[in-house]
Amino acid sequence: MEKTGVAKPCRLGDQSTSDITVHLRNSDGRPEIFYSHSSILVKKSKFFAHWCSNPDSGTCFEIHCSEYNYDHHVNFLRLLYLPAHLLLDSLESVKSAVGILEVSVAFSCEEITRSCIQYLEAVPWEDKEEEEILKAVSQLGPIAMPIISRIQPVDIRATKNVFVSAIRFATSTGGLFPPFGDELRLSAQEQVEYMLGEDEDTPLVTADDEVKSVVRMGLSKIFSSFEKQLSSLLLDFDLVSEAADAKILQTLSDLQWMCNILPKMDLMKEFVSNWVDISGKVLGVTEDNKLDYVMWGLKIKLIEVTGKVLEAVGYGNVILSTPCRVRLLNTWLPYIRKLKPLLDMKYDEDSTFPYKMDEDLCQSIEGAIVSLILALPSNDQADILADWMKADQVRYPDLSEAFEVWCYRTKSAKRRLVEGLDKVGNASAFDLSI
Questions:
Q1: Minimal CA–CA distance to 77: which of 90, 67, 68, 66?
Q2: Which residues form the At3g05675-like ankyrin-like domain (predicted)?
Q3: Quick check: 185 and 172 in contact, CB under 8 A?
Q4: 272-304 pLDDT, tens per residue?
Q5: Residue 205, CB-side half-sphere exposure with 13 Å CA sphere
Q6: Residue 286, SS3?
Q7: 3-state DSSP call for residue 82?
Q8: Domain ranges of the chain
Q9: Can you tell me whether residue 77 is helix, strand or coil?
């Protein structure tokens, strides 16, 4: 009995066994010929199966390629000749897999399409690649769900859990967490700010009582650490190390970060109230004679945080009683007025001096103070403005705008009072004449 010979596997480009040619026209218009086999094309691609079933199709198939997708077509043809179990390992990059996927979808090759989807679902993407991936899989339906599930919006519960964990991470308030390095903690703070960006789900998360409770706990912890570190500065000042200095600066930076996220959660009032309460103690330490010519970094950072508080109150984002607003101004205005020329003098003496109130900070603080003053009762405005004009340093902050408005309003008020008295007098005279 004659033995049946084992058929040799077909190879792309084998002219001796090829019964169909695929012509890829490159960007120059010149075709590159790929000697192929209808048995492979028909088995792997529904498109070619339909094309080959037409008696008039011939033995040559031409594809016009762009400069972008030429290589993807070549790779697609090569993959048609690979066994299914080798397809996944043959994919080398996200860009290549996306390109091959688009060609595979066009030629209805389910085997290669599934392999491309499996590859893309498993490997990391760059941000710029995500749009291309979405474009390629948008019309694939259920088969593309492994990819879509990576980027589809999560439910509110999952978002809340991630946000709460990030807050605890950023404020180091999670009891089960190990101590975090500054880089990881700062990264968590950046991500919390990003999560609080414009998003329709954000208000639902930030309004949650548990979320607010975790944020309040983090704020309380940071304030408590700051007060302890501040109090320790004067206990044994000679032993204060650079590490301790850096630590209190980091805590102040954490408070400054809190000023960025709390307004988005309607919790800034709690920060402002705490800051007003401890302001006297803070300045009691920083204005001690021992710190007269040291710890400039601490002093400038205090001004930056206070600037956030002044903006919140001055522009009406946080509503405080009149006595609290007056106390806030009377506490910090003299300090800001004293510190600014000292920092300028240090910078003039040494241009490498790193602690200086930059122009943006100066303008924001000055604008907030003017706005805050103009919202006070006239007598309180008068007291603050009189104190400002008596001071040696009147150039900063410049309160001349507040003074001009106060003068105008005072005259207007006096005019309205006189007009009111005249009306009352005229009415009385009219009554007497009757």
A1: 90
A2: 246-410
A3: yes
A4: 999 999 999 999 999 988 888 888 999 999 999
A5: 26
A6: helix
A7: coil
A8: 20-149, 267-420
A9: helix
pLDDT tens per residue, range 62-104: 888 888 889 999 999 999 999 999 999 999 899 999 999 999 9
Question: How many whole angstroms separate alpha carbon 140 and alpha carbon 110?
Answer: 11
Determine the Cα–Cα distance for residues 68 and 99; give it in Å rounded to an integer: 9
At the top level of CATH, the class of 20-149 is alpha beta
The pair of three-digit structure tokens given for residue 293, joined into one six-digit string? 């010519």
DSSP 8-state class, residue 2: P
331 vs 203: CA distance, rounded Å: 35
- C-alpha distances out from residue 329 to 37, 137, 311, 409, Å: 86, 59, 12, 21
Do residues 24 and 60 lie in contact, with contact meaning Cβ atoms separated by under 8 Å? no
Cβ partners under 8 Å of residue 233, min gap 6: 240, 244, 248, 285, 291, 295
Q: Are 303 and 334 in contact (CB under 8 A)?
A: no
Outline where 179-321 has alpha helix (H): 182-195, 202-206, 209-232, 242-261, 268-286, 296-314
